[in-house]
Amino acid sequence: MIELSCNCSEGENTDATTMKLLEMLKTYSWNTKVVLALAAFTMNLGESWLLLQRGNTNSLATSVAFLRQVPEIDRFDLLGSEVGKLIQAIRNLASCNAKFMMKVHPWYFSKDTSPISEAKLEIIRAAYWTIHSVVQIASLIGRRNKSTSLSMETGKTLAIRLETEVSQIHDLLMYHFKRCKEYIGKEMEDAYQSLVKLMQRPEGADIVEILNRFLSHGNMEKVDIEKLRSKHVLFLISDLDISLQEITVLNELYLKGEGYEVVWLPVVYGLYDKKKFVELKSSMKWYTDMPAILDPAVIKYIKEVWHFIKNPFAVFLTPEGKVACQSALPMLWTWGNEAVPFTAEKVKDLWRKRYDWRLDFLVDDLIDPELRQWIVEGKLICLYGGGSIDWIREFTTGLKFVLARIGESVEMVYVGKNNDKDWTEKVIHNLRVIKSERHFWARLQSMLYLYTKMRQGKTLTKDDPFMQEVMKILAYDGGDGGWALFCKGPNVIVRMDGETARAIISKHGDLETYARRHGFLEGLAYYMEEQDIPHSCVLKLPFISSEVPGKMCCDQCGREMEMHYTYRCRAM
């Protein structure tokens, strides 16, 4: 900014000033050069432009002119009009340049084929003339204090000539923009159709051929994927919002498993957070020689054929390149490596083996190893989640008071709220929080998704006790209050929503009486049966795939639940 102001005020040759600015900005992209030059112009010469625009009709302009000792502002009215037209032309050109860079996918922009190569040259030309014009304007306005003899006609002629030149470049850039859009549209459609045919081959395709196509770098260095030949491959597909907790769980599964490799396909568009990409990539223990920018045709295939929208998912491929499972992630979350090779028959077999509602199935070693040990030791355990800070304080204090009165101890573990890690961070002080909160909720949602898929959309009723229990916890989390479940060993004996817990704990004298008579868990169960507390069931499910799990019935009254779609911003 200082360079622009000083050189222009001193009357230095504008071509020399332009080249000096370009040299200063040589490490930046052409689009960034333009933005910085316009910002410098605005910061340094906004005051002068106010004077030229407003003249003696604006009290602020008049006051500034008096303080700066700028005489006869009205003499610049004619020049100001022409400079205004030039500035508008520059804005149009800079806007067109920025849109061009944002709309043209980086994967195509890296190519040197026509018309991309021609457009690149025009972008450079547009950037140069934008900066050069800014320098010319700065020179015209910046010399105002020394130029009582400056010819207004000379300034007007220069502004008109520059405005014409800049407008012509804008029109030419728009022409190249249109040509590139047409070229890219055809290129992407051809590449997409080629990928569809490759994936639909009846005889299949070698996994290396598939990987080469999905991980193509365009003109960049090719990736080394020969090490993946003859192996099953799990495509992990996500944007950069995938959590480190999810990656940590997948790392552990991958390191413990055999027979498959994991390849991350990052779905990013245009400008992306390079630091976040490198952070995620470096945290992965599997194959990571992937490009940050995938072929747009690959992204189109992932979105249109595999229905990617936002949430991470995984596609499992055989060594022959055949898609064995298009939604493998819920199986991994639920069953771990036992789910391999992710077939429907395998899932049915796993459900038959583990149908009972047990805490040791709800909480695996990847969620919290210490909690698993407490289950084995037969300790009294309380899992609780959600709730306000006041509810958490009231519930934990009241529960510990009752247990202390009857000589019992409890291991209390807070599991937070689904998809709300910020909330857990707010209330984490002095709470024992489950080790992998994200995985806990992902497993619950995955269980419900897999079970409803296996039932092929049939209504879930009270005849499905296991999934009714899963639904209850998800429904508790969908409400505004908290919830809790109690067990001793692997068997879950009591669970309750937040209002029930509040009502029972508040009458700790009555609960103590039942606990002394029957033991804590049995007494709590008996006491709950006598409570008549209204219920409200809200079940929130993630969009794991394009399939809808069918009708749902309320776990308490049995009535069919209403279904709504909710769009949630996780940034808040």
Show the helix and strand layout:
Layout: H1 2-9, H2 14-24, H3 30-54, H4 59-68, H5 77-103, H6 106-109, H7 116-142, H8 152-199, H9 207-214, E1 232-238, H10 244-256, E2 260-266, H11 274-282, H12 296-304, E3 313-317, E4 323-325, H13 329-335, H14 344-353, H15 359-362, H16 369-377, E5 380-386, H17 389-405, E6 411-414, H18 421-427, H19 437-454, H20 465-478, E7 482-488, E8 491-497, H21 498-506, H22 508-518, H23 520-529
Parallel strand pairs: 1-2, 5-6
Antiparallel strand pairs: 1-3, 3-4, 5-7, 7-8
Helix pairs in contact: 1-7, 2-7, 3-4, 3-5, 3-7, 5-7, 5-8, 7-8, 8-12, 13-19, 17-21, 17-22, 19-20, 22-23
Protein name: Protein SIEVE ELEMENT OCCLUSION B-like isoform X2
Organism: Herrania umbratica
InterPro entries: SEO_C, SEO_N, SEOA
Question: Can you give me a brief rundown of this structure?
Answer:
The protein has helices at 2-9, 14-24, 30-54, 59-68, 77-103, 106-109, 116-142, 152-199, 207-214, 244-256, 274-282, 296-304, 329-335, 344-353, 359-362, 369-377, 389-405, 421-427, 437-454, 465-478, 498-506, 508-518, 520-529, and strands at 232-238, 260-266, 313-317, 323-325, 380-386, 411-414, 482-488, 491-497. The chain is α/β, with parallel strands linked by helices and 572 residues long.
